Amino acid sequence: MFDVVTQIFPNMSGKEIEFLESIMQTLQMMLYSSIISIILGLAIGVILTVTKRGRILQNKFIYNLFDKLINVFRSIPFIILIALLIGFTRMIMGTGFGVKGAIIPLVFGTIPFYSRQVESALVEIDDGIIEAALASGSSPLQIIFKIYLSENIPGLIRGTMITMVSLIGLTAMMGAVGGGGLGDFAIRYGFQRRMTDVTIVTVLTILFLVSLIQSIGNYLIKKTTH
Amino acid sequence: MIELINVSKTFDNQVEAVKDVTLRIKPKQIFGIIGYSGAGKSTLIRLINLLEKPDQGKVIVDEVDLTTLDQKQLRQSRKKIGMIFQRFNLFRSRTVFANVRYPLEGSGLTNIEINERVNELLQLVGLSDKADSYPSQLSGGQMQRVGIARALANRPKVLLCDEATSALDPQTTQSILKLLKELNKKLDLTIVVITHQMSVVKDICDEVAIMDQGSVVEQGSILDVFYNPTYEITKQFVHSADNIDKVDEYLASKRLELAQDENLILLSYSNINTQEALIYNMIKQFDIKVNILFGNIELIGDNPIGWLVIIIGGKQQDESLAYLRANGVRVEVKHYV
Lengths: 226, 337
Ligand SMILES: Nc1ncnc2c1ncn2[C@@H]1O[C@H](COP(=O)(O)OP(=O)(O)O)[C@@H](O)[C@H]1O
Ligand SMILES: [Mg+2]
Hints:
The complex is a heterodimer of chains A (226) and B (337). Chain A has ten helices and no strands. Chain A has helices at 2-8, 16-51, 60-75, 78-93, 98-123, 127-135, 140-151, 153-176, 181-191, 196-224. Chain B is 35% helix and 30% strand. Chain B has a six-stranded mixed beta sheet, with helices on both faces. Chain B has a four-stranded antiparallel beta sheet with strand order 2-1-4-5, with helices on one face. In chain B, strands 12-13-11-14 form a four-stranded antiparallel beta sheet. The model of chain B has no long low-confidence stretch (mean pLDDT 90).
């Protein structure tokens, strides 16, 4: 397979291993940071939803706290967020470089965005449905798991899909500051050594990743829409 | 079964949705609460299962004051108070079967017992063949039947219906009302029906309360309220169902030419005298002429009440009208210029 690739994109020859490693690094960054972000983002999205005025666990303080925090983090450009977090990252992960050093900035960059995606998926659930569950004697916890997190699965998948795609963008940016992965690969060869064909291969790979995520997402949405 | 005692609810310190309402609903009754949109009906019915917390007053259901319960006890009590809604509020992601199963999950029953109960409920509302359908595949009437089955899952003693037929066409409304009436008899269920449609109250309720701007202005047996409406708003509702207002309008617009000694009379009567041939007797007994213009008989529950518009002429008018009055007919002389 690489024979064909190196024929069309000559500068790729000799970089096969490095290229595969970059893909692996990107996938690792994606995997770890999306798992953490999805869990925490779902939790924060639910908190935002249920503590809002008039909802089942209405709580002005908690709602405002999360709401403001999200707004603050969302307004910081990602590249600056990385710089801001470097001390914290080193403290937790022991390093600011590579896949390990990338996870924390990626998670901080993703959670605020994903929480809002979750929140907007949960808002679509009709208040009447919550009311029906309350009237039947459900507890807040039952309503969170059996209604909020179950009634709009397609909406949650859509939000997850959008977040994963934007996460690919963030992992590429991590490359610029020593995070490794496809972004790093493209910058080192495509940008710094002007090997445009290497950049094109990277772009195609990322394009493939994005459409893979979208196809899986669309398939799952179709499966879960009734 | 249900007692509301001096219950009030104000939203945002300004909207007085329910003002000092006292209601007593007897067991096994179908109790109607009627009022225009914004009258506070939904708030009132939500006070019964404490979905809305009263600012003051007591809410007693099945001898327990719900306002004194903690959250856990309240949830337990709510299982014994079913509720159905105008927009059905079914769980979209669940099949019909799973919708009805919802209130039973985690109730301590085994899976087999739960499945049995769900099948029983689906049969009760006539939807056994739709068990695996999703709500989006059902008609409005079918969705409301699912709502009813779900509301009855835990064998409640009370069923609250908030405009349960307002989103349905007249025919489907009839079939849902019929089902509610059957359930009322079969399960000894106390049913509270909120509506803005007098026809709903007329068809199934035993007693009715009329709500206006947060207050209950009138209540009583459906026959009393229909036959002797006191408040203007009650009269409006009563007439919305018997279209007597339209007759008034019609007569007024037509400018009937009455002869010198003729009068236009509106007679109304309830079940006390529909058996007797009063009009016939009257014509035989007195020297009068009677021309019947319009008439109507309504069934309120099982009781007929009716009205008749007549033109009466001849010498013994006063005597004949007195005769009718003596037999319990209400007589109103109408003047149109
Ligand atoms: N949650 C709420 N917050 C503020 N105002 C409300 C709320 N619910 C109802 N109201 C107000 O209370 C009044 C009565 O409403 P409602 O009980 O829904 O009347 P109905 O069901 O008879 O149409 C209306 O003026 C409505 O705007
Ligand atoms: Mg209402």
